[in-house]
Design goal:
This protein has two domains: 5-134 and 279-364, FAD/NAD(P)-binding domain (3-Layer(bba) Sandwich); 155-272, FAD/NAD(P)-binding domain. It has helices spanning 14-25, 41-46, 79-92, 170-185, 206-217, 280-285, 350-364, and strands at residues 5-10, 30-33, 97-98, 103-109, 112-117, 121-129, 135-136, 163-166, 193-196, 222-225, 228-235, 241-254, 257-266, 270-272, 276-277, 290-292, 306-310, 321-323, 331-335, 341-345. The chain is of the alpha/beta class. It is built from seven helices and 20 strands. The strands form five sheets. Strands 1, 2, 3, 4, 5, 6 and 18 form a seven-stranded mixed β-sheet that branches. Strands 10-9-8-14 form a four-stranded parallel β-sheet, with helices on one face. Strands 16-17-19-20 form a four-stranded mixed β-sheet. Helix 1 packs parallel to helix 7 (350-364) and helix 4 (170-185) packs parallel to helix 5. Helices cover 22% and strands 29% of the residues. The structure holds flavin-adenine dinucleotide. Residues 10-16, 33-36, 40-43, 46-47, 53-54, 56, 102-103, 130-132, 171, 174, 325-327, 348-351, 353 line the site of flavin-adenine dinucleotide.
Length: 367
């Protein structure tokens, strides 16, 4: 086995790259493992083509971007250019990224860990889990919903068909804008993009809202369905899997009567952008401590969900193993310096992934 490394970084998204850059600047020995065939594969796989990337900083974090090389520019470039920017950073800084190499397991104890991949093993003192979050949340409907897409593979496939996008956040808004633009440019006047959200209020940031507003003003066929609940998966008379979704039109006539307005879409025309959660099963396999949300402990995570326990520096209960970025979104349990454990909101953004990497490095690197 080659010489012991200071750290193995798993994932070459914004979090992993920021960690690699900081390690490089401090002359630390490290490798970055990426299961995909190029840097930022996770972003390439999940963003709609041409989507503009926003350098959003959540309101509660007033600090500037801690690693400027990974910051998306203020003029909001398309995702393809952002990925190119990352690849240039990798080349210019000679970051060692092992592409097409998938992390599998960890053995040993701090400070002598062995990281195993599908291609080999690495001896290291620290491990940074920056593998993102790609486990889609459950749609929670009766019946099968397996054929519902989670992002757009090819936007042109939706020209000439009515498509339903479910979700009230930025990812859903991006998909809606992007599909509407494709349909508008293809002069598809006959069909629309239906956008359904459980609540009345959508939770999108200003930049996303501006793009969406522009798309509507340019003539995009977007139909918004507030308080719309995906209800049931069903098979119609022609054998097509469908998703039925409904809105309550009156709050109630009486306790025993509600009036609904419903719509039904073939499942293959539905894209559910309802968020992702951390890879709890992987954390279990690595013996990383998690807490199950019950009662009033959690405000963001749902009852029964398991949240990773982390220190202020994103260190897990196993010394030298850290978890950052999308992998710990949308919330984790922070052990405060006073020993009190509380749920911590963690927006899944490029900024937060980069800031997490900086906080990890503040612990690992000498002053
Ligand atoms: C549609 C959409 C639009 C978004 N728009 C914005 C935006 O405009 N601005 C913004 O700030 N944020 C945006 N986000 C969120 C942002 O992309 C994420 O917060 C960010 O990518 C998280 O970075 P990360 O490094 O933690 O994980 P990721 O970017 O997911 O990177 C993880 C990497 O790890 C690799 N990997 C996974 N498992 C393994 C393994 N076992 N072995 C080796 N490699 C592995 C993956 O291939 C991936 O490349 C958007 C998200 C989506 C889905």
């Amino acid at each position: 086995m080659p010489a012991k490394l200071d750290m193995v970084i798993i994932g070459s998204g914004p979090g992993g790259l920021a960690a690699g850059l900081l390690a490089k600047k401090h002359s630390k020995s490290f490798i970055i493992l990426e299961k995909g065939s190029h840097t930022m594969q996770g972003i390439t796989d999940t963003y709609p083509k041409g989507k503009k990337v926003y350098p959003t900083i959540p309101k509660s974090y007033p600090d500037p971007f801690p690693v400027l090389e990974i910051k998306p520019p203020d003029e909001k470039i398309p995702v393809e250019e952002y990925v190119k920017q990352a690849q240039t950073v990798v080349t210019q800084n000679d970051l060692k990224i092992h592409l097409n190499e998938e992390f599998k397991e960890i053995s040993g104890e701090f400070p002598d860990y062995i990281v195993k991949t599908d291609k080999g093993s690495y001896f290291t003192e620290n491990i940074i889990l920056a593998f993102g979050s790609n486990i889609p949340n459950d749609l929670g409907i009766y019946g099968e919903a397996k054929t519902v897409a989670r992002n757009i593979e090819n936007g042109e496939d939706y020209i000439g068909i009515n498509v339903l996008v479910i979700g009230g956040g930025n990812a859903a808004a991006d998909v809606v804008s992007s599909l509407s633009k494709i349909k508008r440019e293809a002069k598809d006047e006959a069909t629309s993009v239906y956008w359904a959200h459980l609540n009345e209020k959508f939770e999108i940031n200003k930049d996303t809202a501006r793009d969406l507003g522009e798309e509507i003003l340019l003539g995009g066929h977007i139909k918004i369905l507030q308080k719309a609940v995906p209800k049931i998966g069903e098979v119609d008379a022609n054998g097509i899997d469908r998703l039925y979704i409904h809105q309550t039109t009156t709050s109630s006539f009486s306790d025993d009567l509600y009036i609904y307005q419903g719509m039904s879409f073939p499942m293959k025309n539905v894209i559910a952008c309802i968020g992702t959660h951390g890879p709890s099963a992987i954390f279990d396999a690595l013996n990383l401590q998690q807490i199950t949300c019950t009662g009033a402990i959690c405000k963001i995570a749902k009852e029964g969900e398991r949240l990773l326990m982390l220190s202020h520096h994103f260190e897990t209960n196993r010394s030298g193993i850290y978890a950052i970025g999308g992998a710990i979104s949308p919330s984790y349990m922070e052990i405060g310096s006073d020993g009190i454990i509380k749920e911590k909101k963690h927006s899944n953004l490029i900024y937060t992934a980069v800031l997490d990497a900086k906080k990890v490095m503040d612990k690992i690197l000498p002053d």
